[in-house]
Design a protein that fits this description.
3-stranded antiparallel beta sheet, 6 helices, alpha/beta, single chain
């Protein structure tokens, strides 16, 4: 969590931006509004982990609160910084499809239909070794729910080679960016638009 060393992160972001570099960070979204606004001045993009969309589940999982994270998401969007939302789908913990649907509607209504959302596959580790990896079918259902809710850019992560790691044009449905792991295989965007439509 980069905000554990906020002052260092702030100084580095300011220096990097001043040197013409792009700045991004990935966070749990628990930062207070004032320091978040201050650092966003020097940041090009942020990815926020949205651990769950049920306040009780969120608290049990993280000992944190859901509402401040939702406020952080809205603040980042209001500041005009590129935002992506990452949801680790943990079996029996954060895989309730009704919660996922409520989350997707909230994301659409509060952040906009073009905000990218990533549903990541869980693998057992650390304190959650007794759970199985997230079934692919659950991730695909979450993807479908998000698309039906009107979100345009929905991805499945931690599943090598899956079609939903690619970016598709929301208008014509053709592949805009094809990915294999961290490598881009094709890029069909010209001047910020789909070259097909």
């Amino acid at each position: 969590e980069p905000t554990q060393q906020y002052e260092f992160m702030y100084d580095i972001a300011k220096l990097a931006k001043g040197s013409g570099l792009r700045v991004t960070f990935h966070s749990n979204g628990g930062m207070s509004p004032e320091p978040m606004k201050a650092i966003l001045t020097y940041v090009d993009s942020v990815a926020i982990d949205l651990k769950a969309f049920d306040a009780e589940v969120y608290h049990n999982l993280t000992t944190g609160e859901l509402a401040p994270v939702l406020d952080t998401l809205k603040l980042i969007k209001e500041q005009g910084v590129w935002l992506e939302v990452v949801c680790l789908v943990i079996p029996t913990v954060s895989d309730n499809l009704e919660d996922i649907e409520r989350m997707c509607v909230w994301l659409r209504d509060n952040l906009g239909e073009e905000t990218p959302v990533h549903f990541s596959r869980f693998f057992p580790t650390c304190k959650l070794t007794g759970l199985s990896p997230t079934p692919l079918s659950t991730l695909e259902q979450a993807h479908d729910i998000a698309r039906q809710a009107g979100l345009h850019y929905v991805y499945i992560g931690n599943v090598s080679g899956h079609d939903y790691a690619n970016t598709y044009c929301p208008e014509c449905g053709k592949i805009l960016i094809e990915r294999k792991g961290l490598l881009i295989q094709q890029n069909n965007i010209l001047d910020g638009r789909c070259k097909f439509c």
